[in-house]
Amino acid sequence: MKRPQTRVGQTKPASRVKPVSQPKPGQPARLPKAVKAGKASSGPRLEKSDRALRKQQKALLKRESKLQQISSRNQREKTKQISNVVTSIKFGGASKAKRVTIIASASAFLALFALVIAAVFSPMIAVERIAIRGQKLVSQTEIKKALKSFMGKPLPQVNADEVANSLKRFALIESISVISQPPHTLMIRITERTPIVIVWVDGFGYSYFDPAGVKVGRATNLNSLPVLRISGTPGKSPSFTAAIDVLMALPANLLPQIQTVTARSKDDVSFQLRGYAGQRVIWGDSSNAVLKSKVLAALLKNQSKSDRVTYDVSSPTAPVVRFR
Length: 324
Prior knowledge:
Layout: H1 33-121, E1 129-133, H2 140-146, H3 160-166, E2 173-181, E3 185-192, E4 197-201, E5 205-209, E6 215-218, E7 227-229, H4 238-249, E8 258-265, E9 268-273, E10 280-284, H5 289-302, E11 309-312, E12 320-323
Parallel strand pairs: 1-3, 4-7, 7-8, 10-11
Antiparallel strand pairs: 2-3, 4-5, 5-6, 8-9, 9-10, 11-12
């Protein structure tokens, strides 16, 4: 099929276009039918589209709000779970530390208790040697013999009262102290009774007595202590108590100068000094002992030892010196 040819210099005829009719003067321009139809038909469609769009927007907003609520609730639950976990860890750690402390304390107490039990009953610290200190008048051999039952006994089980009861038969022992010296030594420190006077006892002769009226032993030297002349048993006699009260109140340097003491009653105590002159002192009762001692010391200083005199200091504010 042959195509139409166009010669050079010829122009292609323009396509025909239907002219738009011009409106008449005073009349509005007329739109094409297609435009009218499109305008008429697009109005309801646009309203429906707007309503659908608004509906979709509301649905989206509602969904977004719901998602935010869910997210906020999830966040709160997550925060609460984290807080519970932290609290659980915190209190769990504290409880664990408390349990560890309790277990450690209980273990230490049990270990200490086991150590105490082992120390009390263990033969590793049993008594194998008894050392006696302070004794002079009592035989050390007799004391050890009396304490023989404590040999082999654990040191913590040795009771001072039991030791004292074992030595109770020794009248010369006034008091004791028990000292444990691990691992195997038990030391006993003894305080013997100190005699203060010599008293004649029927059937025994002259004996030493301490202030409590306990016989310390047989007197071997009558010039060592004052000789007490009383009626009754020493320790139970009122005159013995009165004489001891006076002797205990005298100065230490005056006691060796006294040869004999006579106590007729608690208000009538007198003594005789050693020496050729045999000077006597009327003391009276045990009151004002300090003042009486000072007055007597002054009188002895001013008087010759060879003078046969009697010093009466029963009233220390008005002393009397009588010559014989």
